[in-house]
Every structure is written in C-alpha cells, then in structure tokens.
Design brief:
The protein is of the alpha+beta class and 171 residues long. The chain contains 3 helices and 11 strands, in the order βαββββαβαβββββ. The model has no long low-confidence stretch (mean pLDDT 89).
C-alpha cells in the first residue's frame, strides 16, 4: 500500500517561528518528528573581515519525517501550527526522491553538519563564484580539476584550491 510509505513532508515555514513549529508538531503528534534542513556555511566580507554565515540550502523549506504523516487528517491539523506557511503538495508521490536527497545531504555533511562542496554537481558550467575562503565573491573559471582540487583562473591569477575547503556556485 503506497500510503503507508508516506513519512516525509516538505513544509514552507517562517524561520522566526521554527521553535514554535517544532513544539506544536510534538504536541500534536505525541512523539518527536525528525526535522531536517541542510545548512551551508558561507563567508562574507564585512569591514575588510571575512565572517562566517549560516544559511539553509532549501531556504525557508523544511523536511520533516514522522510515521503519522501517512494519515491525511494529521496533515490537516498540522497545517495550522504556528510557523507553518503551507505543506508542499505532491510529497506523497516523492518519498523515494526525498529519501535519496536526505541521504545525499547527510553523506556530504562535514563534522559540524554543514553541506560540503562535494554535494554539488556542476557538469558543463563555465563560470563560478566563491562563497567561502580568501577568494569569497570572486568569479573564476575552472582550468582543470580532479577529485580533490580545482585549478582556477581568477582574472590574471591562476591558483589551486581544495574542493573540500571552499564552497562555490555556478553563475
């Protein structure tokens, strides 16, 4: 029976009310659900100093796991909890994909629980922007790469950086 497999939901939530949302879910479900929201640690320059900033990979979406989510009436009750904007529809048909995504995130987390660069796949992209490290906000092209390092061209400068130590995104 397909409905028995429904255990993950995707919630659009108010970040300022996350603790209220968690408490309300616990009260309504009777047991603690598992909440998962993969995080990134990016770096920003402020007053000539590089500062760490935590950001959510999914923005204001949260993954939540509980065996009671197979009961549609439970979802109807929970959608009125403080902090819930709405439940993303179609989650019941995407359980396998959600589980694969969560597993991929967990495999690619560092010791502090932040997503590592190894999570991202950028095949065919040409230009990137550093999100962390001494080259934060600098645009670069990949000259060469292997499993652990990339040789990057930043303007007239060529450098080699570790894939594990720095985050970057395509632009």
């Amino acid at each position: 029976n397909r409905t028995r497999l429904i255990m993950w939901v995707i919630i659009k939530f108010d970040k300022k009310k996350l603790s209220s949302l968690k408490n309300d879910f616990f009260k309504n479900l009777g047991t603690k659900p598992i909440f998962y929201s993969p995080k990134l640690k990016i770096q920003k320059y402020s007053k000539n100093k590089l500062n760490d900033k935590e950001t959510f990979l999914l923005g204001d979406y949260l993954l939540c796991f509980h065996s009671s989510f197979c009961n549609h009436n439970i979802i109807e009750i929970l959608k009125y909890c403080k902090g819930v904007k709405y439940f993303l529809s179609g989650f019941s048909k995407s359980q396998i994909e959600i589980e694969k995504f969560v597993n991929k995130c967990k495999i690619n987390e560092d010791e502090q629980g932040y997503i590592k660069q190894s999570f991202f796949e950028f095949k065919g992209k040409k230009r990137f922007k550093f999100l962390s490290g001494p080259f934060t906000n600098k645009i670069f092209s990949i000259i060469n790469e292997n499993q652990f390092k990339i040789k990057a061209s930043i303007g007239n400068l060529n450098t080699i950086v570790s894939k594990e130590d720095y985050l970057y995104n395509p632009i």
